[in-house]
Design goal:
Layout (H helix, E strand, L loop, with lengths): L9 H7 L9 E6 L2 H5 L2 H14 L13 E6 L11 E4 L3 E3 L7 H10 L8 E4 L2
Parallel strand pairs: 1-2
Antiparallel strand pairs: 1-3, 3-4, 4-5
The structure holds FE2/S2 (inorganic) cluster.
FE2/S2 (inorganic) cluster (FES) binds next to α2.
Length: 125
C-alpha cells in the first residue's frame, strides 16, 4: 500500500536543507553515548571537528563546500571497546579511538581513502 500523505517536493526541501544538493564525500559519526563518553569520545569529536575545520574540510553552515560532515551518534554496540567512530559511505567502524588517532584517520582515510586498519573492528557491506 502506498502512503499518499502530502510531502514537500525535493526542491522545496532543498531550499530549507541545502545539504541535500551538496556534494558530501564522507560522514563521520562519533558515538557520544554513555560508555564512549566515559572513555573520552567528546574529545574525539572535538578533535575531528577542529582539524576538519582547520583544513576547510568540515561541512557546516559557514562552509557549505566542505566535503566531510561530522556529527555524534548514539550507541552502536561498541560500548566495551569505544570510543566508536563510524565513517560512511565506507561502512568502516573504528574502536578505541583517541584524539591522538584523529590526524591519522583524517590523513589516511578521509583524505587518502585508506582506513587505519589497526583501529578497524567492523565493516558493513
Ligand atoms: S556507548 Fe558508544 S557504542 Fe555504546
Amino acid at each position: 500500500m502506498t502512503n499518499t500523505r502530502p510531502l514537500p517536493t525535493r526542491e522545496q526541501d532543498a531550499a530549507v536543507a541545502p545539504m541535500i544538493d551538496h556534494d558530501l564525500q564522507r560522514q563521520v559519526f562519533v558515538c557520544t553515548a554513555k560508555s564512549c563518553a566515559a572513555n573520552g569520545s567528546e574529545a574525539v569529536l572535538e578533535a575531528f571537528r577542529s582539524q576538519l575545520m582547520e583544513e576547510s574540510l568540515l561541512f557546516f553552515k559557514g562552509n557549505q563546500t566542505g566535503p566531510v560532515h561530522c556529527g555524534h551518534c548514539g550507541s552502536v554496540g561498541f560500548c566495551a571497546i569505544g570510543p566508536a567512530v563510524l565513517v560512511y559511505p565506507d561502512g568502516v567502524w573504528y574502536a578505541h579511538v583517541t584524539p591522538s588517532d584523529v590526524p591519522e584517520i583524517i590523513a589516511s582515510h578521509l583524505k587518502g581513502g585508506v582506513p587505519v586498519e589497526r583501529l578497524v573492528r567492523k565493516r558493513l557491506g
